Amino acid sequence: MDNYNLVEALVSHMSDIDEKQLLLYAQMANLVNLILQLPNIDIKEIAENFSKFACNAHTICDSELRSLGTGLYPVISIINHSCLPNAVLVFEGRLAVVRAVQHIPKDSEVSISYVETAASTITRQKTLKEQYLFTCTCVRCNKLGQYDDIQESAILEGYRCRDNGCSGFLLRESDEKGFVCQQCGLIRNKEEIRKIASDIKALSDKALKCSSSGNLQEAIVLYKNIEKLQKEVCHPFSIILMRTREKLLEILMQLEEWKEALAICRLTIPVYERVYPGFHPLLGLQYYSCGKLEWLLGETDDAIKSFTKAVDILRITHGTSTPFMKELLMKLEEARAEASFKLSSREDSYITL
């Protein structure tokens, strides 16, 4: 940290923290004092700095948004949060870079998202309150409780109609005995959903243990069973189902089960397109993953389409001069060259015949 004055200017939210957390910060400050053994050390200031770090630090990620650590960037901390941000924070090594993802008029505020935006308003609000100690009042959060917000929350984190041909979402009945499809009116029994949810929870616990212990083959079987059950109760655009498929994709990639991985990756794309804005880096990265799998499996034309979609997004969020983007652009050019060669070879064979 080159300028400690910037740290001093950060908000600590000490008055908003519960006693249990305050006690933890005090214990951590005392531990620092025991280790450093410096004269005139200010225990209270150290405790406040821990609080400042907790609610002002950012997760440092690589170009594919995999977490590497946590860093305090006081200038970046000045930028406010929005659940519908006009900019994105990415890292190039230890350098924090903020890039606009849409036109920002002069004198307008720049905003980034502090949390995962693919979530219901209630979930986002809860995460922001617990981690950053404030209540968001952005344009998305201001819709809390309105019909559109209730519908979106029910689709993202709620249940589906029991009629497989219906794309409706469910809301609780007034008597709390079940859920009513808002499209066709069919009622789904609460106990049926509770039983399936309980089975999913039990399987999820087992799958996590298998995955953590390296038993990937067993984990795959369990996650496939979880996916099957979730498809019975979750809306097709459910982020809960999406997260299960993300985990399946991750393990299938580790096991080099490329065909299955591509099938799962393709299932996630429509959900990503719905839950993320058009220029969100996670959407671009999912297109990139899909393209790499398609190219590996010889589906060159599809790979070109996926790479092109990835480039269109990631050149905005990541720039064009980083090693990551240079590699992506090179893959796109190589795929185009391969497609051109295949087309030329087919034309030559027709001429020969």
TrEMBL record:
GO cellular-component term (any): nucleus
SET domain boundaries: 8-115
Xref: Pfam families:
SET
InterPro entries assigned to the protein according to its UniProt record, in alphabetical order: H3K4_H4K5_MeTrfase (IPR050869), SET_dom (IPR001214), SET_dom_sf (IPR046341), TPR-like_helical_dom_sf (IPR011990)
Q: What is the name listed in the Swiss-Prot or TrEMBL entry for this protein? A: SET domain-containing protein
Q: Which organism is it from?
A: Gossypium raimondii
Lineage per the UniProt record: Eukaryota, Viridiplantae, Streptophyta, Embryophyta, Tracheophyta
